[in-house]
C-alpha cells in the first residue's frame, strides 16, 4: 500500500493486521532499549494461525540502563488467542475464527513504548483514526481507512477526520 493517510493530532490503531506486516517499538522519552535488543515484530501466518513474533524487546529507564545492573533476556512468541482482539471484534461473531487464522490481533503493549509501522501496510489493512483528547472539537472525530485495490490501483479509502482544538 502507499503511505497511510496522516491526520495531525489523531491516534492510529488497527484491530487486525495482515500477515507480513512489520511494526517496531519506540521507547518513550527517558527510556532506551538495551544494546542489541531488536525492536521489530512481524505478523506471520503459520499452520495454526497468524501470530506476532517477538524478540524480547523492552524499554528500560535510562538511569538503570547506564548502571551495571544485570538484565534478564526474554524470547516470546504470541500464540493466536481470542484475548488478543478488542471487545468490538468479539461481538462480530463469525469473524473471530477467520480473523484468528488469517490476521494477527493487536500486538501486546510494552511498558514505556509505542508502536510504529516499519514499512507500508498490505492490501486489506484497515486503520482506525481517533482524535486525541483536546483536538476533538470538530466532527467527525474518528474514522476508518482501508487499503484496497480499485481499478488496478492500490489506494486508501478516503478519510474525513478533522482533529483540531478550535471551535
Summarize the structure.
By secondary structure, the chain is mainly beta.
Describe this protein's structure:
By secondary structure, this protein is mainly beta. The chain is built from three helices and ten strands; from the N terminus they run ββββββαααββββ. It has a four-stranded antiparallel sheet, with no helix packed on it. Strand 9 and strand 10 form a beta hairpin. The two termini are about 35 Å apart.
Keywords:
10 strands, flat, mainly beta, 3 helices, 4-stranded antiparallel beta sheet, single chain, 167 residues
Q: How widely separated are the two ends?
A: 34 Å
Kindly report the average pLDDT value: 76
Largest sheet entry: 4 strands, antiparallel
Radius of gyration: 18 Å
How are the strands of the largest sheet arranged? 1-8-9-10
Amino acid at each position: 500500500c502507499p503511505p497511510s493517510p496522516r491526520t495531525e493530532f489523531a491516534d492510529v490503531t488497527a484491530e487486525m493486521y495482515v500477515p507480513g506486516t512489520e511494526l517496531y517499538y519506540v521507547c518513550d522519552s527517558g527510556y532506551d532499549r538495551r544494546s542489541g535488543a531488536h525492536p521489530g515484530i512481524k505478523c506471520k501466518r503459520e499452520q495454526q494461525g497468524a501470530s506476532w513474533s517477538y524478540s524480547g524487546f523492552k524499554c528500560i529507564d535510562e538511569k538503570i540502563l547506564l548502571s551495571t545492573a544485570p538484565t534478564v533476556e526474554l524470547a516470546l512468541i504470541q500464540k493466536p488467542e481470542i484475548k488478543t482482539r478488542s471487545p468490538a471484534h468479539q461481538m462480530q461473531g463469525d469473524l473471530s475464527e477467520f480473523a484468528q487464522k488469517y490476521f494477527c490481533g493487536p500486538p501486546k503493549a510494552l511498558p514505556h513504548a509505542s508502536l510504529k509501522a516499519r514499512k507500508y501496510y498490505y492490501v486489506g489493512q484497515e486503520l482506525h483514526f481517533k482524535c486525541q483528547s483536546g483536538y476533538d472539537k470538530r466532527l467527525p472525530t474518528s474514522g476508518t481507512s482501508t487499503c484496497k485495490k480499485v481499478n488496478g490501483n492500490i489506494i486508501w479509502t478516503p478519510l474525513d477526520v478533522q482533529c483540531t482544538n478550535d471551535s
